[in-house]
Known about the structure:
By secondary structure, this protein is of the alpha/beta class. It is built from 18 helices and 13 strands. Helix 9 packs across helix 11 and helix 12 (274-301) crosses helix 13 (329-339).
Amino acid sequence: MAMIANKCKGTIVSVVDLNADRIAAWNSGNLPVYEPGLDEIVSQNRGKNLFFSTDVDEKIREADIIFISVNTPTKDYGAGSGQAADLRFVESCARGIAKAGGGDKIVVEKSTVPVRTAQMVKEILDSANNGYSYQVISNPEFLAEGTAMADLENPDRVLIGGDTSEEGQVAVEKVVSIYANWVEKERIITTNLWSSELSKLTANAFLAQRISSINAISALCEASEADVDEVAKAIGTDSRIGPKFLKSSIGFGGSCFQKDVLNLCYLCRHFGLPEVAGYWEQVIQMNEYQKERFVTRLLDSMFNTVSGKRLAILGFAFKKDTNDARESPAISICRRLLEEKANLAIYDPRVSKSSILSTLGWSEEQAEGRIHFCSTAEEACDRANAIALLTEWDEFKELNYASIYANMQQPAILFDGRNLLNLKSLREIGFRAHGIGRD
Ligand code: UDX
């Protein structure tokens, strides 16, 4: 929304949330989300045509176009628990819009939703019977965290799906005209509602599937002395395959991939397609296997026990350049190491202590003596038996590993879960160094 405000100076953008603390943070100098470049765009436009407010009803009444941008987490109760998307926030937005009234509206689904959600939104809006007409549009978001501002400024494509009726097409064109302020027309794809909804889940499933595919090959590389980065380069130069999303790692994390693939599986089963669901379920299973394999290799190299040993955890975010730890592969790896009675010294340049504790499900009291929160990488590695590098932060490339090595317990072990470092130089220093899919 900040980018829309930045690119469409004649349009007023009001961002509303029920959570007053969040809105206060958006109105302060300390935004609640760390994203490179976001601070500048918000501060340049806030108070001009970009506003943050808790006046939900009033802003709904004033708006011509409303973007529903609430979270759609995996359901953790009742039917479809563990797989289906929890749509209660989308539903309550639709009800709120219907109740607030204020005129004809275009309602845009920005949240990632299962195919046919627009039907539910439409039914709720139409049942308001308030004399106003509503058009529902699907406009999924493809930005990735850490590169969000560049992705928004220069998107590969913008997808807008709408009803095929004449009114539906008028609404589609209205939403197209917003993006057309800075995105070339050829990159704005219009489809019917259901194709747009399904394309978002499909895009994330394909991306996640590429990571699971290269991670599956990484296990084979370790067994066969092939090097997964070399294999990725060799296959990625085939223009039909392409080079992106072939970086082998400890597994994908983040708030989208697992949730969306699980949701796709749920939908397939719902529509009576268990074989299709089973195919996509393997993407998640491979991701779990990759995390567990990392822990097993670490244990093996530490003589099968980490009990009472100090392990330095470098990075906790699910990827670099974000403070987001949701579904980070670091969570299950750290949980497993804690289960094995290791003591963890965690350092991440952006993820807060409270977010680490809450994602791990540990209280401050439980963490006492077991988890140390460090303010530098060097502090985390001090007297450690092993280092596990779990996020590919640039600063980890620049560390003085010789001096880190000198302050560690011997033999000093290093597991690079992101294939970020040069294993040969680490071995020259004296480390027992390991990567993913190369040894
Ligand atoms: C993803 C999609 O890319 C984006 O289009 C969608 O809108 C939201 O979900 P995001 O989760 O922010 O974006 O990050 P992304 O860059 O896709 O990375 C997801 C995870 O995959 C991270 O944990 C990352 O480390 C991992 N990853 C990515 C790999 O392990 N290897 C790769 O080659 C790429």
